[in-house]
Specification:
There is one protein chain. The protein folds into five domains: about 15-65, no CATH class; about 80-315, Dna Topoisomerase Vi A Subunit, Chain: A, domain 2, CATH 3.40.1360; about 350-565, Rossmann fold (3-Layer(aba) Sandwich); about 580-640, Winged helix-like DNA-binding domain superfamily/Winged helix DNA-binding domain (Arc Repressor Mutant, subunit A, Orthogonal Bundle); about 690-800, SH3 type barrels. It has 28 helices and 32 strands. It has a nine-stranded mixed sheet, with helices on both faces. A six-stranded mixed sheet has the order 8-10-9-11-12-13, sandwiched between helices. A five-stranded antiparallel sheet has the order 31-30-29-28-32. Helix 6 links the parallel strand 9 and strand 10. Helix 15 (about 440-450) runs parallel beside helix 17.
């Protein structure tokens, strides 16, 4: 046996512990206390080598766990005797003789491990005591040379390995090696050694070293005093002769990350040794199921030194792992322009046209006692029922309403006034009377569970904040950003109510300046609305990134407690596109905006606007998708019922079809109609139209006049101005009908056009050429190439092409 000695060198923890790419590692002190199951990387190291355990372990405790205690300069007068940590050669012989003199459990355990009495004597293995908690337990001792001349030895102790786990006292650790530096322990070192077999522990090194000794091999055998996972200092590694073949334990139970401790320890040693290192596999049967198969297991199973030499010959030079490239978190969020364009929608499918989008944060600011809660309640009802809000169609879905101001009695009173009772109050609106922004994660989970939430109302900002932040621009940005992120992630419109400041608004001032923290609000929120009192109504001023700023006149209806728009909402649409979209829906049943735009080669944004108007006129229905799925549109069920009634029950009163109203009635002023313009709901001005122009305008109208008499609405031809007759004195009224009666009778195979009045049939036929397939009395059965079924139309409503 050759003694080894650790010369004082500057301590660098990176020579003992392997750190990851973030310079984090498992603290050796924590691991020794918590056991092998402790895997938290709470040890960090700075570029200059300074290290810290974030659980509070001191540097001395960490170095002690590594077996590399700090050198101490202690005055001789007060220094403790060296015998407290080391023992002399006579003491080593004495404790060895004591072990061999008795048939103790320690001796029997060593025999079971293959350590014979001869090996016990050769390596001076003895028996001693180790302190565990408040008691001492017997321990097997292995002498570790403490200096180069062999006059002092450390004692590495294996504490009572024969005691069962249930009888082990609290604080029990298998090994006790306090004060022992991490060093090389040789069990066979010939003078002319050119190679070293490095084992994972002392018992394995003793067994394999004995095979080499008996063969008088020139291969040295050694282990590290602190195990394979902890690498000694370089001066100790330099003691290993020649090429170093590392035999590590196999079949170790994998860690949580899939790594096996033996393999990881071997790679750590090989990385430090560099080109001298080779990693070999301990000989093992293919069907071996023993966990932690080591060198001793192999020797006990009959493997010989030749098997170990073959394993060494087949060992591979250490190939260091490629340095792990730190994953850049920005890379996952980076999108190439062509991919962005491909995934972006071609239109905005509004929650409320021109006002609210379905996946953004909006804020509503009003003075106190203005009716902002009624505004939100009116909106909630419209979303829940799929009705209209400020004369605009909405996307139907569920609503979550955080009501932090009004009591339940007031909410019930307002709902009753608004007519919620007709649905039995059973609308998909969910209420909270308490909520804080710190609970956003829980709200996100709730929105996912409900699935079809379209609107989240937070009334008011001052009540849902959970901090004492001031309503300044800097603080508002920090508060609102998580709400904006929630809206985007969940596809939900978040409407947050807020108070306006008490400052006076001058004539040309921006009204949004009255919002407290306005600069941050307008940069974070997708849109903002403020409500200001006007002369006879309120001004609702709205801005967002998709449409022009709106300045609407609104007021509360006293009888229904609902906010209403003063005027009408009439977006400009193309009549031909409108008819083609209706035809397409007649043919295929239902489709999304993108499907309609692709099929008809239309701009998706224009299709979206036209469908909103058709929805408002009850000509199509919008079927909201679940969560963030796309909505579908189909022909209105009400319109289909009207068409079925028209085709199934022809009008038996021919006079009501052919009679003309009095000319004077035709030329009276028609009901007021708001002119189609981008801002038709901003103003109440109407242009004066000449009588003939009025008539042309009314004849070209493609929908029911809102103020028509009931008798007109329920007749076979809804508009009197469209019921033309041959004896009219006005050429515009008699032209088409005269042509119908001046031609020869219709027959099968003829092509005709529909000339009846505005009705569901007029919407269906338009100006198409229809083919007559059969004549039955005073009606004709016609077809069109894109219709799924034929239609029955009175002959008087058809003109030969």
């Amino acid at each position: 046996m050759v003694a080894s000695y650790n010369a004082p060198v500057q301590f660098d923890i990176r020579n003992f512990v392997e750190f990851d790419a973030q310079n984090r590692a498992i603290c050796p002190s924590c691991a020794s206390i918590k056991g092998s199951g402790f895997k938290k990387r709470n040890l960090s190291v700075a570029p200059n080598g300074a290290y810290k355990c974030h659980r509070g372990c001191t540097t001395d405790e960490i170095r002690s766990a590594l077996g590399a205690e700090r050198p101490r300069q202690i005055p001789t007068a007060i220094a403790q005797p060296a015998s407290n940590t080391t023992i002399s050669p006579p003491q080593v012989k004495g404790i060895c003789a004591r072990l061999l003199a008795t048939d103790s459990p320690a001796r029997k355990w060593l025999h079971d491990r293959g350590i014979t009495d001869g090996l016990i004597k050769r390596h001076s293995i003895g028996v001693g005591r180790a302190k565990v908690g408040n008691q001492h337990l017997p321990a097997i001792t292995i002498p570790i040379p403490a200096n180069s001349d062999g006059t002092q030895f450390y004692q590495k102790k294996r504490v009572a390995p024969w005691i069962s786990e249930e009888n082990q006292p609290n604080g029990y650790k298998p090994w006790s090696q306090y004060g022992i530096p991490n060093s090389v322990y040789f069990t066979w070192l010939p003078a002319n050694a050119t190679q070293t077999y490095l084992c994972e522990g002392e018992w394995d090194a003793i067994r394999l070293g004995e095979l080499l000794r008996n063969a008088d091999s020139e291969i040295a055998c050694a282990s590290f005093t602190s195990g394979a996972g902890n690498v000694p200092a370089q001066d100790q590694l330099d003691l290993l002769p020649g090429e170093v073949v590392i035999f590590y334990d196999r079949n170790d139970a994998p860690l949580k990350n899939g790594d096996r401790p033996g393999e990881i320890g071997a790679k750590k040693v090989a990385k430090v040794l560099g080109d001298r290192a080779r990693i070999a596999l301990v000989p093992m049967a293919d069907d071996c199921e023993i966990k932690g198969w080591d060198t001793s297991n192999a020797i006990d199973s009959g493997f010989t030194l030749e098997d170990f030499k073959k394993a060494a010959a087949n060992s591979l030079p250490f190939q260091p792992d490629e340095p792990k490239r730190r994953e850049n978190p920005l890379r996952a969020r980076m999108v190439k322009n062509i991919d962005l364009i491909a995934r972006a929608a071609d239109y905005i499918d509004w929650l409320v046209p021109d006002l609210l989008t379905p996946n953004e944060l909006f804020i509503l600011g009003t003075p106190p006692r203005t009716g902002k809660s009624l505004f939100c309640l009116t909106l909630a009802k419209a979303i829940a029922t799929g009705g209209t809000f400020l004369d605009r169609p909405v996307t139907q879905g569920s609503v979550i309403y955080v009501n932090c101001e009004d009591g339940e009695t007031k909410v019930k009173y307002r709902q009753t006034a608004q007519g919620w009772e007709q649905w039995g109050y059973d609308l998909p609106v969910y209420w909270f009377d308490e909520f804080k922004l710190s609970e956003l994660d829980d709200m996100r989970e709730l929105i996912e569970d409900l699935g079809d939430v379209r609107l989240l109302v937070l009334d008011t900002l001052s009540r849902v904040r959970n901090d004492n932040a001031k309503e300044s621009s800097s603080e508002m940005g920090r508060i609102l950003e998580p709400l904006q992120q929630l809206a985007r992630d969940m596809g939900v419109c978040v409407l947050l109510t807020h108070h306006l400041s008490e400052a006076t608004l001058e004539k040309d001032d921006d009204p949004f300046k009255l919002l407290r923290g306005n600069s941050s609000i307008r940069s974070t929120c997708r849109g903002a609305m403020v409500m200001l009192p006007g002369e006879h109504s309120y001004r609702l001023i709205s801005e967002n990134g998709w449409s022009d700023r709106l300045d609407l006149n609104v007021r509360i209806q006293p009888d229904t407690l609902e906010w209403k728009l003063l005027g009408n909402w009439n977006p400009r649409v193309d009549g031909d596109m409108k008819q083609q979209i209706l035809d397409h829906l007649n043919l295929i049943g239902e489709a999304t905006i993108q499907e309609i735009a692709t099929e008809l080669n239309f701009n998706a944004g224009s299709v979206c606007t036209i469908l909103h108007r058709l929805q408002r006129e009850d000509m199509v229905e919008k079927i909201g998708g679940t969560g963030r799925q796309l909505a579908h549109y189909k022909r209105s069920a009400n319109l289909s019922q009207q068409l079925d009634m028209l085709l199934g029950q022809p009008n038996s009163d021919n006079t009501s079809v052919t009679a003309c109203p009095n000319k004077n009635n035709l030329e009276e002023n028609p009901p007021e109609k708001v002119i189609n313009s981008p801002k038709s709901d901003h103003t109440s001005d109407t242009k004066q139209i000449a009588p003939d122009a009025k008539l042309d305008h009314i004849l070209e109208n493609d929908h029911f006049l809102p103020n028509s008499p009931n008798s007109v609405r329920t007749s076979a031809n809804p508009h009197p101005v469209s019921v033309v007759c041959p004896n009219s004195q006005n050429p515009k009224l008699g032209q088409d009908r005269t042509l119908a009666h001046s031609t020869k009778p219709l027959k099968t195979g003829d092509f005709v056009r529909y000339i009846g009045g505005d009705s569901p049939m007029s919407m269906l036929c338009g100006s198409r050429q229809l083919e007559v397939i059969r004549i039955q009395g005073d009606v004709a059965i016609v077809k069109y190439e894109r219709w799924a079924i034929s239609q029955t139309i009175p002959l008087v409503d058809l003109r030969l092409v």
